[in-house]
Design goal:
10 helices, seven-stranded antiparallel sheet, alpha+beta, five-stranded mixed sheet, 2 domains, single chain
Length: about 425
Protein backbone atom coordinates (compact mmCIF):
# COMPACT_ATOMS: atom_id res chain seq x y z
CA UNK A 1 0.00 0.00 0.00
CA UNK A 2 1.14 3.57 -0.72
CA UNK A 3 1.27 6.44 1.75
CA UNK A 4 2.26 10.09 1.28
CA UNK A 5 4.60 11.82 3.73
CA UNK A 6 4.60 15.62 3.60
CA UNK A 7 8.05 16.81 4.71
CA UNK A 8 9.19 20.42 5.02
CA UNK A 9 12.44 21.25 3.24
CA UNK A 10 15.13 23.32 4.96
CA UNK A 11 17.00 25.03 2.10
CA UNK A 12 19.61 27.75 2.47
CA UNK A 13 19.12 31.16 0.86
CA UNK A 14 21.10 30.09 -2.20
CA UNK A 15 19.14 26.84 -2.48
CA UNK A 16 15.86 28.75 -2.04
CA UNK A 17 16.76 30.95 -5.01
CA UNK A 18 17.56 27.88 -7.12
CA UNK A 19 14.25 26.23 -6.17
CA UNK A 20 12.37 29.44 -7.01
CA UNK A 21 13.96 29.58 -10.46
CA UNK A 22 13.25 25.89 -11.06
CA UNK A 23 9.63 26.26 -9.98
CA UNK A 24 9.17 29.33 -12.20
CA UNK A 25 10.54 27.65 -15.34
CA UNK A 26 8.57 24.46 -14.65
CA UNK A 27 5.38 26.52 -14.28
CA UNK A 28 6.06 28.31 -17.59
CA UNK A 29 6.42 24.92 -19.31
CA UNK A 30 3.20 23.71 -17.67
CA UNK A 31 1.25 26.77 -18.87
CA UNK A 32 2.69 26.50 -22.38
CA UNK A 33 1.59 22.88 -22.74
CA UNK A 34 -1.84 23.75 -21.33
CA UNK A 35 -2.30 26.51 -23.91
CA UNK A 36 -1.22 24.21 -26.72
CA UNK A 37 -3.56 21.41 -25.66
CA UNK A 38 -6.56 23.62 -24.85
CA UNK A 39 -6.37 25.67 -28.05
CA UNK A 40 -6.01 22.61 -30.28
CA UNK A 41 -8.39 20.45 -28.25
CA UNK A 42 -5.71 17.77 -27.84
CA UNK A 43 -5.35 15.83 -24.59
CA UNK A 44 -3.09 13.08 -25.91
CA UNK A 45 0.22 13.08 -24.06
CA UNK A 46 2.24 11.72 -26.97
CA UNK A 47 0.96 14.36 -29.40
CA UNK A 48 1.54 17.16 -26.90
CA UNK A 49 5.05 15.86 -26.26
CA UNK A 50 5.85 15.97 -30.00
CA UNK A 51 4.45 19.50 -30.31
CA UNK A 52 6.03 21.10 -27.23
CA UNK A 53 9.13 19.21 -26.06
CA UNK A 54 11.83 20.65 -28.35
CA UNK A 55 10.53 24.28 -28.27
CA UNK A 56 10.42 24.15 -24.45
CA UNK A 57 13.90 22.62 -24.26
CA UNK A 58 15.20 25.44 -26.43
CA UNK A 59 13.41 28.09 -24.37
CA UNK A 60 14.53 26.63 -21.00
CA UNK A 61 17.94 25.03 -21.61
CA UNK A 62 18.85 24.89 -17.89
CA UNK A 63 15.70 23.02 -16.88
CA UNK A 64 16.39 19.25 -16.78
CA UNK A 65 14.69 17.27 -19.53
CA UNK A 66 12.99 15.06 -16.96
CA UNK A 67 11.27 18.09 -15.42
CA UNK A 68 10.15 19.30 -18.84
CA UNK A 69 8.52 15.91 -19.38
CA UNK A 70 7.03 16.07 -15.87
CA UNK A 71 5.43 19.45 -16.64
CA UNK A 72 3.93 18.00 -19.82
CA UNK A 73 2.45 15.04 -17.91
CA UNK A 74 0.78 17.30 -15.33
CA UNK A 75 -0.43 19.69 -18.05
CA UNK A 76 -1.93 16.80 -20.00
CA UNK A 77 -3.97 15.80 -16.95
CA UNK A 78 -5.20 19.37 -16.47
CA UNK A 79 -6.09 19.80 -20.16
CA UNK A 80 -7.98 16.53 -20.25
CA UNK A 81 -10.04 17.56 -17.24
CA UNK A 82 -10.71 21.05 -18.69
CA UNK A 83 -11.79 19.71 -22.09
CA UNK A 84 -14.12 17.19 -20.44
CA UNK A 85 -15.72 19.91 -18.35
CA UNK A 86 -15.94 22.22 -21.38
CA UNK A 87 -17.81 19.59 -23.39
CA UNK A 88 -20.18 18.90 -20.52
CA UNK A 89 -20.77 22.60 -19.84
CA UNK A 90 -21.52 23.43 -23.48
CA UNK A 91 -23.94 20.50 -23.74
CA UNK A 92 -25.85 21.47 -20.59
CA UNK A 93 -26.18 25.21 -21.34
CA UNK A 94 -29.08 24.89 -23.89
CA UNK A 95 -31.01 22.90 -21.28
CA UNK A 96 -30.52 25.67 -18.73
CA UNK A 97 -31.74 28.27 -21.25
CA UNK A 98 -34.82 26.21 -22.11
CA UNK A 99 -35.59 25.75 -18.42
CA UNK A 100 -35.25 29.48 -17.73
CA UNK A 101 -37.57 30.32 -20.63
CA UNK A 102 -40.13 27.81 -19.40
CA UNK A 103 -40.11 29.41 -15.95
CA UNK A 104 -40.25 32.95 -17.37
CA UNK A 105 -36.79 33.92 -16.14
CA UNK A 106 -33.97 35.55 -18.15
CA UNK A 107 -31.48 33.14 -19.68
CA UNK A 108 -28.34 32.60 -17.57
CA UNK A 109 -25.12 34.10 -18.83
CA UNK A 110 -22.83 31.62 -20.53
CA UNK A 111 -19.47 31.39 -18.78
CA UNK A 112 -16.92 29.67 -21.01
CA UNK A 113 -14.41 27.24 -19.54
CA UNK A 114 -10.98 28.82 -19.46
CA UNK A 115 -7.61 27.31 -20.23
CA UNK A 116 -5.86 25.84 -17.16
CA UNK A 117 -3.15 28.11 -15.83
CA UNK A 118 -0.99 27.82 -12.72
CA UNK A 119 0.92 30.40 -10.70
CA UNK A 120 3.12 27.79 -9.07
CA UNK A 121 2.74 24.30 -10.56
CA UNK A 122 4.08 21.51 -8.29
CA UNK A 123 7.02 19.58 -9.71
CA UNK A 124 6.62 15.80 -9.92
CA UNK A 125 9.90 13.97 -9.33
CA UNK A 126 10.61 10.31 -10.04
CA UNK A 127 13.47 7.94 -9.23
CA UNK A 128 15.66 9.50 -11.96
CA UNK A 129 15.34 13.08 -10.74
CA UNK A 130 15.51 12.82 -6.92
CA UNK A 131 16.42 10.61 -3.99
CA UNK A 132 15.70 10.51 -0.24
CA UNK A 133 17.86 9.16 2.59
CA UNK A 134 15.85 8.48 5.73
CA UNK A 135 18.91 7.86 7.92
CA UNK A 136 20.29 11.39 7.47
CA UNK A 137 16.93 13.05 6.65
CA UNK A 138 18.33 14.50 3.44
CA UNK A 139 17.09 14.64 -0.14
CA UNK A 140 18.53 15.54 -3.53
CA UNK A 141 16.45 17.29 -6.18
CA UNK A 142 17.16 18.03 -9.83
CA UNK A 143 17.09 21.81 -10.47
CA UNK A 144 18.24 24.36 -13.04
CA UNK A 145 21.61 24.40 -11.24
CA UNK A 146 22.05 20.66 -11.14
CA UNK A 147 21.44 18.46 -8.14
CA UNK A 148 20.73 20.28 -4.88
CA UNK A 149 20.98 18.38 -1.59
CA UNK A 150 19.20 19.64 1.52
CA UNK A 151 17.73 18.45 4.81
CA UNK A 152 14.06 18.08 5.65
CA UNK A 153 11.78 17.72 8.67
CA UNK A 154 9.23 14.93 9.08
CA UNK A 155 6.09 15.62 11.17
CA UNK A 156 5.54 13.40 14.20
CA UNK A 157 2.39 11.72 12.89
CA UNK A 158 4.27 10.55 9.77
CA UNK A 159 7.30 9.06 11.53
CA UNK A 160 5.70 5.59 11.41
CA UNK A 161 6.00 5.64 7.59
CA UNK A 162 9.68 6.61 7.57
CA UNK A 163 11.86 3.90 6.05
CA UNK A 164 9.41 2.74 3.40
CA UNK A 165 10.36 2.26 -0.22
CA UNK A 166 10.45 5.70 -1.87
CA UNK A 167 8.40 6.17 -5.05
CA UNK A 168 7.54 9.51 -6.67
CA UNK A 169 7.37 12.91 -4.98
CA UNK A 170 5.83 16.34 -5.60
CA UNK A 171 7.61 19.59 -4.76
CA UNK A 172 5.06 22.19 -3.59
CA UNK A 173 5.43 25.85 -2.60
CA UNK A 174 3.01 27.10 0.05
CA UNK A 175 3.11 30.34 2.04
CA UNK A 176 6.81 30.94 1.44
CA UNK A 177 7.95 27.39 2.27
CA UNK A 178 8.77 24.33 0.20
CA UNK A 179 7.27 20.95 0.97
CA UNK A 180 8.06 17.58 -0.57
CA UNK A 181 5.15 15.13 -0.79
CA UNK A 182 6.99 11.80 -0.78
CA UNK A 183 5.06 8.66 -1.76
CA UNK A 184 6.33 5.56 0.04
CA UNK A 185 5.31 1.96 -0.55
CA UNK A 186 4.61 -0.16 2.55
CA UNK A 187 3.75 -3.86 2.87
CA UNK A 188 0.04 -4.50 3.13
CA UNK A 189 -1.19 -6.00 6.43
CA UNK A 190 -1.92 -9.73 6.48
CA UNK A 191 -5.51 -9.71 7.71
CA UNK A 192 -7.96 -12.37 6.67
CA UNK A 193 -11.22 -10.99 5.25
CA UNK A 194 -14.37 -11.73 7.23
CA UNK A 195 -18.05 -12.01 6.33
CA UNK A 196 -18.92 -8.84 8.26
CA UNK A 197 -20.67 -6.28 6.01
CA UNK A 198 -21.41 -2.79 7.34
CA UNK A 199 -23.65 -0.33 5.51
CA UNK A 200 -22.90 3.38 5.94
CA UNK A 201 -25.41 6.14 5.25
CA UNK A 202 -23.80 9.54 4.68
CA UNK A 203 -25.69 12.78 5.15
CA UNK A 204 -25.48 16.50 5.78
CA UNK A 205 -27.27 16.53 9.15
CA UNK A 206 -25.81 13.26 10.45
CA UNK A 207 -22.37 12.82 8.85
CA UNK A 208 -22.45 9.00 9.04
CA UNK A 209 -24.74 6.29 10.42
CA UNK A 210 -23.67 2.64 10.24
CA UNK A 211 -25.82 -0.47 10.06
CA UNK A 212 -24.26 -1.69 13.34
CA UNK A 213 -26.00 1.24 15.04
CA UNK A 214 -23.24 3.81 15.36
CA UNK A 215 -24.15 7.49 14.88
CA UNK A 216 -20.85 9.16 14.04
CA UNK A 217 -19.91 12.81 13.63
CA UNK A 218 -20.35 15.86 15.83
CA UNK A 219 -23.30 18.23 15.62
CA UNK A 220 -20.96 21.20 16.16
CA UNK A 221 -19.39 20.65 12.73
CA UNK A 222 -22.44 22.04 10.96
CA UNK A 223 -22.52 25.12 13.16
CA UNK A 224 -18.81 25.72 12.57
CA UNK A 225 -19.41 25.90 8.82
CA UNK A 226 -22.41 28.19 9.31
CA UNK A 227 -20.38 30.53 11.51
CA UNK A 228 -17.53 30.64 9.00
CA UNK A 229 -19.99 31.45 6.19
CA UNK A 230 -21.60 34.26 8.20
CA UNK A 231 -18.23 35.80 9.03
CA UNK A 232 -17.03 35.71 5.42
CA UNK A 233 -20.31 37.17 4.14
CA UNK A 234 -20.16 39.99 6.68
CA UNK A 235 -16.55 40.84 5.82
CA UNK A 236 -17.21 40.72 2.07
CA UNK A 237 -20.12 43.14 2.46
CA UNK A 238 -18.01 45.52 4.54
CA UNK A 239 -15.20 45.68 1.98
CA UNK A 240 -12.76 47.78 4.04
CA UNK A 241 -9.00 47.22 4.15
CA UNK A 242 -9.22 45.65 7.60
CA UNK A 243 -12.03 43.37 6.40
CA UNK A 244 -9.90 42.25 3.46
CA UNK A 245 -6.98 41.56 5.80
CA UNK A 246 -9.30 39.46 7.96
CA UNK A 247 -10.55 37.59 4.89
CA UNK A 248 -6.96 36.84 3.95
CA UNK A 249 -6.37 35.32 7.38
CA UNK A 250 -9.48 33.16 6.99
CA UNK A 251 -8.36 31.92 3.57
CA UNK A 252 -8.35 28.13 3.54
CA UNK A 253 -9.69 27.76 7.07
CA UNK A 254 -12.97 26.19 5.98
CA UNK A 255 -11.10 23.77 3.71
CA UNK A 256 -8.86 22.73 6.63
CA UNK A 257 -11.88 22.29 8.90
CA UNK A 258 -13.61 19.99 6.42
CA UNK A 259 -10.43 18.06 5.89
CA UNK A 260 -10.11 17.54 9.64
CA UNK A 261 -13.77 16.49 9.91
CA UNK A 262 -13.36 13.94 7.12
CA UNK A 263 -10.24 12.53 8.77
CA UNK A 264 -11.99 12.21 12.13
CA UNK A 265 -15.13 10.67 10.64
CA UNK A 266 -13.27 8.11 8.51
CA UNK A 267 -11.09 7.15 11.47
CA UNK A 268 -14.13 6.59 13.72
CA UNK A 269 -15.81 4.40 11.11
CA UNK A 270 -12.73 2.20 10.79
CA UNK A 271 -12.31 1.99 14.56
CA UNK A 272 -15.92 0.85 15.01
CA UNK A 273 -15.53 -1.99 12.49
CA UNK A 274 -13.69 -5.27 12.88
CA UNK A 275 -10.57 -5.83 10.74
CA UNK A 276 -11.33 -7.60 7.48
CA UNK A 277 -14.86 -6.20 7.18
CA UNK A 278 -16.54 -4.81 4.07
CA UNK A 279 -17.69 -1.19 4.26
CA UNK A 280 -20.55 -0.35 1.90
CA UNK A 281 -21.32 3.27 0.99
CA UNK A 282 -23.57 5.07 -1.44
CA UNK A 283 -22.13 6.15 -4.77
CA UNK A 284 -22.83 9.89 -4.55
CA UNK A 285 -21.25 10.82 -7.90
CA UNK A 286 -23.30 13.48 -9.73
CA UNK A 287 -25.54 13.99 -6.69
CA UNK A 288 -25.29 17.76 -7.12
CA UNK A 289 -26.93 17.53 -10.54
CA UNK A 290 -29.53 14.89 -9.67
CA UNK A 291 -30.57 16.00 -6.19
CA UNK A 292 -33.66 18.14 -5.64
CA UNK A 293 -32.37 19.50 -2.34
CA UNK A 294 -32.26 23.25 -2.11
CA UNK A 295 -34.49 24.11 -5.07
CA UNK A 296 -36.26 27.25 -3.96
CA UNK A 297 -35.81 30.87 -2.95
CA UNK A 298 -36.30 30.79 0.81
CA UNK A 299 -33.36 30.88 3.21
CA UNK A 300 -33.54 27.23 4.26
CA UNK A 301 -33.45 25.96 0.69
CA UNK A 302 -30.57 28.27 -0.20
CA UNK A 303 -28.59 27.01 2.78
CA UNK A 304 -29.27 23.38 1.84
CA UNK A 305 -28.16 24.06 -1.72
CA UNK A 306 -24.97 25.70 -0.51
CA UNK A 307 -24.19 22.80 1.80
CA UNK A 308 -24.76 20.06 -0.77
CA UNK A 309 -22.56 21.90 -3.29
CA UNK A 310 -19.76 22.12 -0.70
CA UNK A 311 -20.13 18.51 0.49
CA UNK A 312 -16.66 16.92 0.38
CA UNK A 313 -17.82 13.31 -0.02
CA UNK A 314 -15.12 12.47 -2.59
CA UNK A 315 -12.40 13.54 -0.15
CA UNK A 316 -14.07 11.48 2.57
CA UNK A 317 -14.10 8.41 0.29
CA UNK A 318 -10.37 8.72 -0.32
CA UNK A 319 -9.61 9.09 3.40
CA UNK A 320 -11.79 6.11 4.31
CA UNK A 321 -10.26 3.95 1.55
CA UNK A 322 -6.67 4.29 2.70
CA UNK A 323 -7.52 3.98 6.41
CA UNK A 324 -9.57 0.84 5.71
CA UNK A 325 -6.76 -0.62 3.61
CA UNK A 326 -4.44 -0.48 6.63
CA UNK A 327 -6.84 -2.76 8.56
CA UNK A 328 -7.55 -5.17 5.75
CA UNK A 329 -11.02 -3.76 5.02
CA UNK A 330 -12.71 -3.41 1.65
CA UNK A 331 -14.69 -0.31 0.63
CA UNK A 332 -17.39 -0.71 -2.03
CA UNK A 333 -20.10 1.57 -3.41
CA UNK A 334 -23.70 0.77 -4.31
CA UNK A 335 -26.49 2.57 -6.14
CA UNK A 336 -28.11 4.98 -3.63
CA UNK A 337 -31.53 5.08 -5.31
CA UNK A 338 -34.51 4.39 -3.02
CA UNK A 339 -32.37 3.50 0.01
CA UNK A 340 -34.09 6.21 2.07
CA UNK A 341 -37.62 5.31 0.85
CA UNK A 342 -37.56 1.53 1.35
CA UNK A 343 -38.51 -0.20 4.57
CA UNK A 344 -35.64 -2.35 5.84
CA UNK A 345 -38.12 -4.77 7.42
CA UNK A 346 -40.77 -5.55 4.78
CA UNK A 347 -39.21 -4.00 1.67
CA UNK A 348 -42.16 -1.65 0.93
CA UNK A 349 -41.03 1.40 -1.02
CA UNK A 350 -42.80 4.76 -0.91
CA UNK A 351 -41.61 8.34 -0.88
CA UNK A 352 -43.79 9.25 2.09
CA UNK A 353 -42.29 6.47 4.21
CA UNK A 354 -39.76 9.03 5.37
CA UNK A 355 -41.83 11.43 7.43
CA UNK A 356 -38.99 13.82 8.24
CA UNK A 357 -35.23 14.06 8.14
CA UNK A 358 -34.82 11.73 11.13
CA UNK A 359 -38.07 9.71 11.22
CA UNK A 360 -38.86 6.68 9.06
CA UNK A 361 -42.33 5.12 9.44
CA UNK A 362 -43.38 2.43 6.99
CA UNK A 363 -46.86 3.00 5.55
CA UNK A 364 -47.43 -0.73 5.14
CA UNK A 365 -46.08 -2.51 8.23
CA UNK A 366 -45.70 0.44 10.62
CA UNK A 367 -42.00 -0.24 11.24
CA UNK A 368 -40.46 2.85 12.87
CA UNK A 369 -36.81 3.76 13.37
CA UNK A 370 -34.28 6.45 12.61
CA UNK A 371 -34.34 7.28 8.90
CA UNK A 372 -30.55 7.30 8.52
CA UNK A 373 -30.24 3.95 10.28
CA UNK A 374 -32.89 2.53 7.98
CA UNK A 375 -30.89 3.79 5.00
CA UNK A 376 -27.71 2.17 6.32
CA UNK A 377 -29.51 -1.18 6.67
CA UNK A 378 -30.81 -0.90 3.10
CA UNK A 379 -27.33 -0.06 1.81
CA UNK A 380 -25.94 -3.16 3.50
CA UNK A 381 -28.68 -5.40 2.13
CA UNK A 382 -28.31 -3.97 -1.37
CA UNK A 383 -24.68 -5.10 -1.38
CA UNK A 384 -25.64 -8.53 -0.03
CA UNK A 385 -28.28 -8.81 -2.74
CA UNK A 386 -25.63 -8.07 -5.36
CA UNK A 387 -23.41 -10.82 -3.94
CA UNK A 388 -26.35 -13.24 -3.89
CA UNK A 389 -27.07 -12.52 -7.57
CA UNK A 390 -23.54 -13.71 -8.34
CA UNK A 391 -23.99 -16.81 -6.19
CA UNK A 392 -21.81 -15.57 -3.33
CA UNK A 393 -23.24 -16.38 0.09
CA UNK A 394 -22.03 -14.91 3.38
CA UNK A 395 -22.54 -16.59 6.71
CA UNK A 396 -23.36 -13.21 8.26
CA UNK A 397 -25.93 -12.43 5.60
CA UNK A 398 -29.67 -12.78 6.00
CA UNK A 399 -32.32 -14.42 3.79
CA UNK A 400 -32.55 -12.64 0.45
CA UNK A 401 -35.89 -13.91 -0.82
CA UNK A 402 -37.41 -10.43 -1.01
CA UNK A 403 -34.14 -8.60 -1.63
CA UNK A 404 -34.16 -7.19 1.91
CA UNK A 405 -33.32 -8.62 5.31
CA UNK A 406 -35.70 -9.29 8.15
CA UNK A 407 -34.41 -7.26 11.09
CA UNK A 408 -33.96 -8.87 14.46
CA UNK A 409 -36.13 -8.12 17.43
CA UNK A 410 -33.51 -5.66 18.68
CA UNK A 411 -33.79 -3.62 15.51
CA UNK A 412 -37.55 -3.30 15.97
CA UNK A 413 -36.83 -1.18 19.05
CA UNK A 414 -34.49 1.21 17.27
CA UNK A 415 -34.69 4.68 18.82
CA UNK A 416 -36.12 7.53 16.81
CA UNK A 417 -33.47 10.25 16.95
Amino acid sequence: MDRTIVVQLNPTKEQMAVLDQTMQEHTECFNAVCRQGFQTGCSNGIELHKATYYPLRAEHPDLPAQLVCASRVKATEAVKSALTWKKKHEASYPKLVAKAEKQGRPAPKFKPVRCPQAVSAPIRYDARSYWVKWQSMTCSLATVSGRVEMTFTVPKHALKYVGGKVCSADLCFHHGRYFLHVVVSLPAPTIEPTDCVIGIDLGLNRPAVTSNRHFLGDSRWKEQERRMFRIRRKLQRKGTKSAKRHLKKLSGKLFRQRRDHDHVLSKRIVQNATPGSTLVLENLTNIRESSKIGRGKNGKNVESKRRIHSWSFAQFYSFLAYKAEARGMTVVKVDPRHTSQTCSKCGYQARNNRRSQSLFLCRQCGYCLNADLNGALNIREKHLSTLASFGIALTSGSPMSSGLSQPSSGELQAPVL
